[in-house]
Amino acid sequence: MKKAVVTLGAIFLPLALSSTVMASAVEQTKGSYVDKFRQLDEVLPTPNVYRSAAGEPGEKYWQQHVNYDIDVKLDENARRLTASQTIEYKNNSPHTLKYLWLQLDQNIFKSDSIAERTATFNGSALQGDPQPKATKLSLSQLRRQQFMSDNELGFTIANVKDDNGKELKVTVVDTLMRIDLNEPLKPGKDTEFSMDFAFNIVEEDAVGARSGYEHFEKDGNDIFLLAQWFPRLAAYTDYEAWTNKAFLGSGEFTLEFGDYDVEITVPADHIVSATGKLDNASSVLTRTQRNRLEQAKNTKRPVFIVTEDEALENEKEGTDKTKTWHFKAENVRDFAWASSRKFMWDAKGYQQGGNDQPLVMAMSFFPKEGGDLWKKYSTEAIVHTMEVYSRFSFDYPYPVAQSVNGPVGGMEYPMITFNGPRTELQDDGSRTYSQAEKRFLIGVVIHEVGHIYFPMVVNSDERQWTWMDEGLNSFLDGVAGREWDPTIPWGVEPRDVVAYMKSENQVPVMTQSDSVLRLGPNAYTKPAAALNILREVILGRELFDFAFKEYAQRWKYKRPTPADFFRTMEEASGVDLDWFWRGWFYSTDHVDISLDKVYQLRLDTKNPDIDFNRLRDIEAAKPMPLFVERNKAEAKKLWVEENSDVTDFYDENDRFTVTNKERNSYNKFLKGLEPWERKVLDRAVAEDKNYYVLEFSNLGGLVMPILLELTYEDGTKEDRMIPAEIWRRNHKHVQKLIITDKNKPLVSVTVDPRWETADVDVENNNYPRRIIPSRIEVYKKEQSKAKVSRDIMHDIKTELKTDDEKDDAKEQE
Q1: 202-259 pLDDT, tens per residue?
Q2: Nearest to residue 565, comparing CAs of 455, 478, 477?
Q3: Cis peptide bond prior to 768, omega within 30° of 0
Q4: Alpha-carbon gap, residue 576 to 579, rounded angstroms
Q5: Rounded Cα–Cα distance for residues 589 and 566 (Å)
Q6: CA 753 to CA 760: how far, in whole Å?
Q7: Distance between CA 239 and CA 51 in Å, rounded?
Q8: Angle CA(273)–CA(278)–CA(280) in degrees, nearest 5?
Q9: 715 — phi, psi (to 5°)?
Q10: Which of 707, 718, 703 lies closest to 753 in space, CA to CA?
Q11: Element (H, E) at 315
């Protein structure tokens, strides 16, 4: 889950398959055949020594390594960071590099950034003069503009030097910075350089960002959430070289792994949470706090390291003194931290993978505004996440996992997450929360801590393919949420994506992040629903779980692409899924399978004594014509009844009477059969099965398995699954023969009875068609009122209320 200012561009990946791209590879010029099962080989990158056809890292796979040594100081009053850092860059690529690219994410807030200059107006429809209806501009939009104009934002960078103290040439391009090296960096070599930097911290609530500060008017304190806070190396990859796309808001961050040594200087009464392990606890924590932290390693429920009472005391204080917190982190791709005197802090140890595995400390940092909601559920949700995700991937690889409350709704970084839900202060001084807030907290903690696995360890390229971290993670947080409590409406079932799937306002999942029209359903819900269907419907849990875990373990601490995921899932499961990826990820088709007709057939045995009797029964079962029925009711006598003395052969024998000629013909037919043919026919006649032909239409375009629920005359039901390959020769219309036992006649058929395939129209899934349940709401019709002008003569007599009177009126309401 992300909270960010989103400005959409118009950049599509080459992998975002269109019909034009398909046509350039294969062209169907005869008939109307469309191959929904065409292999993706013509679309996916060609396997090479870096990435194999199996979806594994190749024998010459490489990635860069970057270490950071940073000293940073928080100026609480000025709300400004100042820092210096030394960066060690190891070139593991086969290429010689003449320059390095760094990300300057804070520059997105500069007035001349691409993001700001391309921001579009989102008010209501404009009208020309004379203007009967004004357009709308929200106060939050005005607040943002005012904050941006009142503050100097973006990085200030100085003293960029190599390890010999020699200046390096720097070129800033929007949210990127190029450093020209004094000497080319050859393969296998490393270089070191340093710089000073500073920036003014944005007010998150005002600007809408992924980090920043939050000010609390009542107690005068702030919570600082610091992320994207230092110039970071852009990734240099085998598939794209430098990933130096400007940061526009949606496409996140593609970074390199490395080791961090970070010293953070803050007011002495602040509590700091950060990526990494605290290296100087004896300098910044009291003996009591250190003892509590030790105690928390082996408790069933979280232990407070900083209690609520202690946090409340801190809120009242304030100091000019400072403390320096020292954190070290190994093999991480980013570093974030949080600082506030408002924080209470709880912790609980999690022993994973047996007693021989390192203990993980799950910890939460939150102000009094978090209340019992955070006390009860935040740290427990961290542990639950690790339990579920480790089952699907690998043991949690770091010493700590943290959840921090602040102004950011939800963001993730290695070992630390920012999460927003809070309680409401009531008149009696208590704090309460709704079920929605409870769901939000548990869900966002699971989601953001889950991101520590994907993409903080399985290091997918968020700038390019948002779905690779958000979609995979949303699928897994759906598993974890339902394993927490399935009665809570998590919104992760296939049925929950139906409205988006049939909407016109969408693009393929394989669209570059900044060009996605609706990021939530496109990057989160749709791929999550797709993977849920892949696991529960198409592959089954055993095959899916094996393949997914294989993917996670293959690409742990590495950088996978979509092709690596697609190929691994197919290679490890042993199932051809190209049709699935093509439909769900490369198209905007939706699922709408209609059961149009059901034909009931009976076997023609060729035996006239059997078949003619059946024909007689069929004729007798037809409705009596209205003419005949009314004549009978009126007791009208027929001619044959009044003239019973005139009869012939046909009065005694109907047209279904069997003759010996027909019997002889049947016997001749039997003699002409091969023994095996006679055996087959005899068995079919003896069993006298029910034969049904089901006729389906694919109205949505997305081919899928057909899930059937067959209901029989005796009340029993049977589930059948027809694989998606039934559509391989005709993706629009198919027929399927269903055979049932003689004593099992069908009475109804339902397609996708449990709504497991995201079918957008369940009403055409029933045969016979059902009466559609709906609802009606009674309302009182308002009398239309003609527009009147302001009655100033009357309104001016109204007495002006004081603030106290306004409050009283509000309470009475």
Answers
A1: 998 888 889 999 999 989 999 999 999 999 999 999 999 999 999 988 888 889 999 9
A2: 455
A3: yes
A4: 8
A5: 19
A6: 13
A7: 9
A8: 125
A9: 95, -10
A10: 707
A11: helix 308-316
